[in-house]
């Protein structure tokens, strides 16, 4: 009997190891066969009742066998990719039980994987960074600073720049302007946001008709929601309750936010004066790098539950899907959150999470529940007839704008879909609990906000994405690429592990 | 700009440090103002950190006695006393000479006295300093045990803080050398006091606690048997140790917990087939032998593994197939490598330092691996250049390597096949005989044991060994105070005499001298007695030899035989003695020595009716040989024996239920009929 590995197309009528791209360990003589008819002395012989394990290490492309739970040492090195487990039987009546992890392995594969995980992480930790002294630290500080500036945390950015001897590229006033606009968007006051943008950056929206359209569609949604300024002044809601970002810190905190972050927000929201700014700076810094414990353990459990004898292969699959998820959430979740009292703001760090789809959905549920409890009766446009009429009118304008856009710039499916989704809200008696109701979720303001922010920055010749986000996106992409190229070590490295 | 102004005074103080002599620091310790003294000590602390030259200067200038004085003064503030302990600790961190100077000033009693203070910071500073001193190789560990109250006080301090825990455990693990120390610490409740530190949140505490257990349990059955039943937070210690073996744990931790489990297994506290040994400890130790590990770790791993599997053939078999261990060990002989010699002096130095340790560890592990299983021995010997390495090892300058090489050779010499082939091809007897010259007892025991195997009759080495003067050497071993050496000496002579030619036998007898032979026959050890009788029996085989030896030594031998048959000995000894008599009875002229000795004849008669069948059978051999028909004078002998009642007994025995006795008796009776 021979146990081993074969590539696709290897002759299935011969024992593994005898032919090209075929590898085997034979029970009769205990020899290993590396694509050759002559074996090398490898291990003990094996026979009825023995449990033989075959483990392929996709990190260093080696293979070792185990007999009754004892590792016999490396049998093959420099293995090609895409090998399949193979068992060759020669004697009539031979029986083999195969275990691909459905039962616990006799050999402690978990322990072996722990060692490799540690090795990979040590390799990353010891990766040489810049030779010249201080260079690395300066670069890190620049990244943090640019991140703060990008998202308009001007007080924090100022304090950080001061303590690290850096200059902020953008003028303070400009940061504050962006901050004002973002605040309006995140509060759902789209009309004011558009107006302010047009005031401060006169040609911006003219040059970006698609952006203007997206903002207007959002404005329409906010009208339905009853939050946009144009309908709110017509409605009966007290401005105060609608003014701030209408969710508690808990509900807008994204999955990977640490509890301490939530507490911070309280501090910042209530505090005033420079001392508060400073503490805000400190905690914001730490928030930027502390990732949620629960989320980490979620990642770990995903790795550890994989217990096939070809573990890395599986882990790659897992990690690949994770990477894809996290990347898509980068796009969606990149946002800034603001507090209406103006000085204190913080990030929800949405793009730091790399959260999986699953997490994300859970989060949405959370938010909706929050809305339910705070607004017991939700009414279209805040329940005002005048507001509804204004909304309908605005909808017609929007329709006209869409047609004009199509004439001028050609078909745009994204725009078309956006408008269709927004209008669909009116088809339901209770838009909030309709299939398209998630548009009304305040968290949906964040992508709009982010796009607008990037557009403003671009007009200043500043990057539309902060370098920190770029670096993380690139790292995630690299890991995905490694997985696709069969570089096994990526299974034991995730960007999240380093966001603490 | 503002920051520049702030920095200026600091720069000046740095400048003054450089220019001022060390004398200044010492002078300040004598200031009348206690506040200035404190500042002086603090400045001294900052000056000596990492500065070995400064440390040596201060010691020469007499800072130590003054610091100790300040540390012991009741009137000193706690802060001052603490800073003094910190400075002393810093001085101890320097060279070994520093530590010696501190010891000369009786620093240990002063620091131990300090531990009685109520102030935790001060206690921690004292412990830290004590730790540094005790882990130095120049400090005699006995200093810890001079006052019995010290240990119990240290045990009590274990609950104070994570620092007291770390330092005390480190002191214990360095000062616990041998069973006496183990017992003292054990009796002071070390196991209970330290066990819960294994789950401390501090890695350093966990590690030092683990080290404590590894030294406490080493070759100590009492501690090992206790450990197995201790639990912390509902988890038994063996389980905790197994968790510390996990492959993502630091190597130091894996190795040390493997040592703990090994000690417990060897003490019988954990079965050798327990999965925590077979599937955890053993594979972990094999991994420690891999090329990826540091040289020190590989040495320790191999030695511990050798100890773990030494007496259990199943563990030997598992280890032999795990991760190509046998091949992996061959790498231990490749230091210093030829590459390191050329490219890197530092590496060469490092390699050289560990080369001996590596080789002896590999030999030890090979010895354990090959102790019982013939297939494993074959695999070991087939490893590249194995026999050459052993032969070289036998003549190395390091006694540790020589000893380990002999152990390895001894283990492999248990193989009949290897004795006939590779042992002969490599003439291992030559270096072995050399090792036996003027060697310490420990070495002689193993070497002579190996020689025993090489002298077996089928061994081709037998001849050359004899020619190189082995008889003299072995005879001298039989006079040793050391029991194992006496056994091995006489054992080797016994093997040598088996089916040997006349000359060798005479040489042995001459070399041994009859006095020594009698001495050995009255040896208090039954093993020595048995092997001596075995030697006699081998000497007295084939008729011409029997007659020759009996003609020269007959009187003494008969005396000795009588003595033993009369003495209080076990069945095996008596049986062996009767067999000697049977051999003598086989001689032509020697027969008469029995026939003319009524005393002996009565004894033979007695044993024919003994309750033990083995003795009866042996006595019957004598009778058969005496009455055998075809030999000259058989008639007279038959008559004489009939007269003393032998025939009656033979009749009785021919009715025996034991088929052997029955057959033998019938054959004997037939001699009378013919």
Automatic annotation (TrEMBL), chain A:
Q: Which InterPro entries match?
A: B30.2/SPRY (IPR001870), B30.2/SPRY_sf (IPR043136), ConA-like_dom_sf (IPR013320), CRA_dom (IPR013144), CTLH/CRA (IPR024964), CTLH_C (IPR006595), LisH (IPR006594), SPRY_dom (IPR003877)
Report domain CTLH positions.
174-231
Q: Which SMART domains match?
A: CRA, CTLH, LisH, SPRY
Gene encoding it?
RANBP9
One matching Pfam family is SPRY
Q: From the record, what ranges are coiled-coil?
A: none
- Per the database record, which ranges form the B30.2/SPRY domain? 1-105
**Residue numbers spanned by region Disordered:** 236-260
Name the record gives this protein: Ran-binding protein 9 isoform X2
* Compositionally biased intervals (Low complexity): 244-260
Task: Give the similarity note.
Answer: Belongs to the RANBP9/10 family.
User: From which domain of life does this come?
Assistant: Eukaryota
Automatic annotation (TrEMBL), chain B:
Domain of life of the source: Eukaryota
Annotated keywords: Cytoplasm, Nucleus, Repeat
Q: Which Gene3D superfamilies match?
A: Leucine-rich Repeat Variant (1.25.10.10)
Q: Single GO cellular component annotation?
A: cytoplasm
Q: Main localisation, per the record?
A: cytoplasm
Signal peptide as annotated in the record: none
Q: Where in the cell is it found?
A: Cytoplasm; Nucleus
User: InterPro entries, alphabetically?
Assistant: ARM-like (IPR011989), ARM-type_fold (IPR016024), Armadillo (IPR000225), ARMC8/Vid28 (IPR038739)
Q: Which Pfam families match?
A: Arm
The ARM repeat units are at 62-98
**GO annotation (BP), single:** proteasome-mediated ubiquitin-dependent protein catabolic process
Q: What is this protein called?
A: Armadillo repeat-containing protein 8
From what organism does this protein derive? Answer: Aythya fuligula (Tufted duck)
Phylogenetic lineage: Eukaryota, Metazoa, Chordata, Craniata, Vertebrata
């Amino acid at each position: 009997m021979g146990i081993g590995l074969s590539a696709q197309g290897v002759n299935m009528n011969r024992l593994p190891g005898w032919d090209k791209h075929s590898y085997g360990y034979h029970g009769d003589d205990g020899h290993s066969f590396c694509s050759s008819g002559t074996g090398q002395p490898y291990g003990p012989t094996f026979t009825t009742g023995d449990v033989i394990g075959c483990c392929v290490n996709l990190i260093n492309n080696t293979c070792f066998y185990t007999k009754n739970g004892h590792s016999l040492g490396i049998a093959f090195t420099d293995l090609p990719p895409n090998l399949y487990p193979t068992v060759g039987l020669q004697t009539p009546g031979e029986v083999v039980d195969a275990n691909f992890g459905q039962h616990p392995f006799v050999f402690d594969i978990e322990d072996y994987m722990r060692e490799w995980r540690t090795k990979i992480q040590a390799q990353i930790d010891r990766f040489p960074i810049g030779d010249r002294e201080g260079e690395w630290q300066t670069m890190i500080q620049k990244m943090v600073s640019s991140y703060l500036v990008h998202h308009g945390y001007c007080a924090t950015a100022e304090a950080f720049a001061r303590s690290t001897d850096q200059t902020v590229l953008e003028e303070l006033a400009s940061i504050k302007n962006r901050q004002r606009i973002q605040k309006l968007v995140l509060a759902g006051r789209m009309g004011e946001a558009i107006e302010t943008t047009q005031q401060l950056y006169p040609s911006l929206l003219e040059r970006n008709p698609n952006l203007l359209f997206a903002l207007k569609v959002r404005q329409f949604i906010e009208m339905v929601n009853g939050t946009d300024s144009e309908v709110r002044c017509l409605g009966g809601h007290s401005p105060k309750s609608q003014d701030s970002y209408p969710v508690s810190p808990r509900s807008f905190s994204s999955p990977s936010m640490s509890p301490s972050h939530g507490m911070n927000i309280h501090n910042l929201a209530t505090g005033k004066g420079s001392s508060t700014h400073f503490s805000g700076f400190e905690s914001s810094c730490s928030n930027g790098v502390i990732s949620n414990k629960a989320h980490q353990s979620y990642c770990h459990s995903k790795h550890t539950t994989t217990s096939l004898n070809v573990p890395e292969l599986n882990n790659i699959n897992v990690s690949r899907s994770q990477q894809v998820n996290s990347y898509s959430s980068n796009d969606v979740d990149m946002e800034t959150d603001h507090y209406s009292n103006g000085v204190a703001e913080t990030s929800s760090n949405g793009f730091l999470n790399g959260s999986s789809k699953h997490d994300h959905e859970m989060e949405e549920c959370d938010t909706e529940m929050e809305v339910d409890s705070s607004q017991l009766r939700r009414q279209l446009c805040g329940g005002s007839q005048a507001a509804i009429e204004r909304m309908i009118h605005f909808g017609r304008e929007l329709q006209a704008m869409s047609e004009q856009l199509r004439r001028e710039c050609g078909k745009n499916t994204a725009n078309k879909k956006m408008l269709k989704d927004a209008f669909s809200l009116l088809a339901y008696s209770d838009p909030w609990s309709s299939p398209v109701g998630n548009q009304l979720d305040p968290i949906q303001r964040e992508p709009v906000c982010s796009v607008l922010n990037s557009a403003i920055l671009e007009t200043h010749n500043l990057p539309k994405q902060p370098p920190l986000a770029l670096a993380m996106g690139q790292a995630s992409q690299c890991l995905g690429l490694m997985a696709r190229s069969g570089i096994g070590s990526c299974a034991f490295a995730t960007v999240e592990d380093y966001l603490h | 700009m503002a920051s520049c102004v702030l920095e200026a005074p600091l720069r000046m103080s740095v400048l003054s440090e450089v220019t001022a002599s060390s004398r200044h620091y010492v002078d300040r310790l004598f200031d009348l103002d206690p506040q200035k003294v404190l500042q002086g000590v603090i400045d001294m602390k900052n000056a000596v950190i990492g500065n070995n030259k400064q440390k040596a200067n201060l010691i020469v200038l007499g800072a130590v006695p003054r610091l100790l004085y300040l540390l012991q003064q009741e009137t000193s503030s706690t802060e001052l006393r603490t800073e003094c302990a910190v400075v002393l600790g810093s001085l101890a961190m320097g060279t070994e000479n520093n530590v010696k100077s501190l010891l000369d000033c009786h620093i240990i009693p002063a620091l131990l006295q300090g531990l009685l203070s109520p102030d935790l910071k001060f206690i921690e500073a004292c412990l830290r300093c004590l730790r540094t001193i005790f882990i130095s190789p120049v400090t005699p560990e006995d200093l810890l045990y001079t006052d019995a109250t010290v240990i119990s006080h240290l045990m009590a301090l274990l609950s104070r803080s994570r620092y007291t825990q770390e330092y005390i455990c480190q002191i214990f693990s360095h000062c616990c050398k041998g069973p006496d120390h183990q017992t003292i610490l054990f009796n002071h409740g070390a196991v209970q006091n330290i066990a819960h530190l294994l789950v401390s949140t501090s890695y350093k505490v966990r590690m030092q606690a683990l080290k404590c257990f590894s030294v406490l349990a080493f070759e100590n059955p009492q501690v090992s048997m206790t450990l197995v039943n201790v639990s912390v937070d509902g988890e038994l210690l063996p389980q905790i140790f197994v968790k510390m073996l996990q492959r993502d744990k630091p190597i130091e931790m894996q190795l040390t917990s493997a040592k703990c489990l090994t000690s417990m297994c060897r003490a019988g506290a954990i079965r050798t087939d327990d999965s925590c040994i077979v599937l955890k400890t053993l594979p972990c130790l094999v991994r420690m032998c891999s090329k990826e590990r540091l040289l020190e770790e590989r040495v320790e791993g191999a030695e511990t593994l050798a100890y773990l599997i030494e007496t259990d053939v199943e563990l030997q078999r598992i280890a032999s197939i795990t991760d190509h261990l046998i091949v992996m060990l061959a790498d231990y002989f490749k230091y210093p490598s030829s590459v390191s010699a050329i490219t890197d002096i530092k590496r060469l130095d490092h390699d050289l330092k560990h080369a001996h340790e590596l080789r002896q560890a590999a030999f030890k592990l090979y010895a354990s691996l090959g102790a019982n299983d013939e297939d494993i021995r074959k695999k070991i010997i087939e490893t590249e250049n194995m026999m050459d390495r052993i032969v070289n090892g036998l003549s190395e300058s390091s006694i540790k390597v020589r000893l380990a090489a002999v152990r390895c050779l001894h283990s492999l010499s248990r193989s009949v096949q290897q004795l006939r082939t590779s042992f002969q091809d490599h003439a291992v007897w030559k270096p072995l005989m050399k090792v036996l010259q003027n060697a310490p007892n420990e070495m002689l025991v193993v070497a002579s044991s190996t020689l025993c195997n090489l002298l077996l009759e089928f061994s081709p080495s037998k001849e050359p060994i004899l020619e190189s003067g082995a008889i003299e050497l072995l005879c001298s071993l039989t006079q040793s105070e050391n029991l194992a050496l006496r056994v091995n000496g006489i054992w080797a002579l016994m093997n040598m005499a088996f089916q040997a030619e006349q000359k060798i036998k005479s040489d042995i007898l001459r070399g041994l001298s009859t006095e020594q032979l009698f001495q050995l026959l009255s040896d208090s050890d039954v093993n020595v007695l048995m092997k001596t009788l075995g030697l006699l029996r081998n000497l007295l085989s084939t008729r011409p030899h029997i007659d020759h030896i009996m003609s020269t030594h007959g009187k003494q031998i008969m005396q000795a035989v009588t003595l033993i048959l009369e003495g209080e000995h076990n069945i095996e000894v008596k049986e062996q003695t009767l067999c000697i008599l049977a051999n003598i009875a086989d001689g032509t002229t020697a027969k008469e020595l029995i026939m003319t000795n009524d005393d002996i004849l009565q004894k033979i008669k007695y044993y024919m009716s003994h309750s033990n069948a083995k003795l009866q059978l042996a006595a019957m051999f004598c009778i058969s040989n005496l009455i055998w028909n075809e030999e000259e004078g058989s008639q007279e002998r038959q008559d004489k024996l009939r007269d003393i009642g032998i025939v009656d007994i033979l009749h009785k025995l021919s009715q025996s239920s034991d088929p052997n006795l029955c057959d033998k008796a019938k054959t004997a009776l037939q001699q009378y009929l013919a």
